[in-house]
Amino acid sequence: MILLSHYIVVSAILFSIGVIGVLCRRNALVIFMSVEIMLNAANLAFIAFAREHGGMEGQTIAFFVMALAAAEVAVGLGIIMAVFKKQGTIDLAKINFLKG
Amino acid sequence: MQLAFFYFFSGLSILSALFVIFFRNTLSAAIALVVTLFGVACLFGLLEAHFLAAMQVLVYAGAVMVLFLFVIMLMNLGREELLKIKLAFLGIIGVITGVCLAILLVTRFMGLSAPLLSLDLGVEYGTVKSVGKLLFGEYLIPFELTSILLLVAIIGAITLARKPQS
Fold this sequence. Notes:
The structure holds 2 protein chains of 2 kinds. In chain A, about 80% of the residues lie in helices and about 0% in strands. Chain A is mainly alpha-helical. In chain A, α1 (about 5-25) runs antiparallel to α2 (about 30-55) and α2 packs antiparallel against α3. By secondary structure, chain B is an all-alpha fold. In chain B, α1 (about 1-20) packs antiparallel against α2 and α2 (about 25-45) packs antiparallel against α3. At the A-B interface, α1, α2 and α3 of A face α1, α2, α3, α4 and α5 of B.
């Protein structure tokens, strides 16, 4: 029998994998993919809770998250391409023109 | 039966998500990400969110991944990254932080033991009709704001990708 906790645990594991990817990779594209994994984990939690309550609101929110993720990917990849054109690399350890 | 599908698809998505962050080749990571998104779409299907499962495949595995693959091909990132196998000190800290987060979240959420199949859902649950009714009824203003967000994203992407005028 599937419990709600099954889905939430899968969602938590996926989210943590995304966090690990963001923290320990230096390739900007892979960091972006990890962010996508985290957004998907959040969506999974939304839909699991919606299923548990029998309402549709969670699915609607997940739909908005999807639209937001698509917008984010378009702008983010544009930024990565612009940085790549300027610097010739997408290694975040080597991109330091902001002198942070 | 449903439990077997659940374990199969969740195992598939977790395993391929691990591949995404540990593959050295960016192209292989992108392909692994497609498998992850497909596995999550199947989990959506198991949760009877059929419309969102279809959207997940169309938007993520279709449009978003095409963008990723385009950018990878444009940058021509080859195997140059393969040389840098050594994990930096910050990377180790990142892995420890992530594993601690996973343990914390999993132990916290293990307690939620509400059975999912107890509710008697109508036949319309998760269909285009019921999602659309909410989107164009109760959530009309957020829906319209989403369209503005997408417009802003389009303009932003074009501005960023354009050649500088000067």
